[in-house]
Amino acid sequence: MTLIHTLRPLLARLPEAPPSQALAFSLNLVRHRLWPDEDFSWLADRRVRFEIADLGRGTTIGFSGRRFRGEAPPADVTFAASLADYWAIARRESDPDTLFFQRRLTITGDTELGLQLKNLLDATDWAQLSALLPTPFRPAAS
Q1: For residues 52 and 85, is the Cβ–Cβ distance under 8 A?
Q2: Can you give the CATH number for the domain in which 105 is found?
Q3: pLDDT tens for residues 48-95?
Q4: Judging by beta carbons within 10 Å of its beta carbon (0-12, 13-18, 19+), is residue 59 exposed, middle or buried?
Q5: Smallest Cα–Cα separation from 83: which of 135, 5, 139?
């Protein structure tokens, strides 16, 4: 039995609001550093959900009033992948397009919005933030 299978019943009982709020708070902290020229008008009053398929959990965020906000489902677009695949994407060890075509990353709902967000995240220079992270959390060297 893996750690994920052990944690899944516990996580299923927890509310989604705290992680959604934490993600929104974190994005607001780094938004101007990562995307100084992006106004996110295309994301205004829309909801995006990130589901961790193997945990059976997710977070939903929105953008309103020039700020990211934790939201409740339903979402306009939903990304779903395993925790390991999200981790590989974050560390730049896997390409989202490759995972998408392998059906390990799915985008449902408003796929145009999903692709716009995926392209923004792909084009983001995460290096300026990686120096702030503890070594195990830093992306892989290019």
Answers
A1: no
A2: 3.30.1050.10
A3: 999 999 888 899 999 998 999 999 989 999 999 998 998 888 878 898
A4: buried
A5: 5
Print the domain residue range for 76.
Answer: 3-133
Task: Please tell me the total count of domains within the chain.
Answer: 1
Strand order through the sheet with 77-81? 67-71, 57-64, 47-52, 77-81, 105-109
Nearest alpha carbon to residue 104 among 73, 76, 83, 126: 83
28: left (phi over 0), alpha (psi -120 to 50) or beta: alpha
Question: How far does Cα 3 stand from its chain's mean position?
Answer: 21
Q: The tokens of 138 are what?
A: 């830093």
Does residue 125 carry a pLDDT above 70?
yes
pTM over 0.90: no
Question: What's the burial of 109, exposed, middle or buried (CB within 10 Å: 0-12/13-18/19+)?
Answer: middle
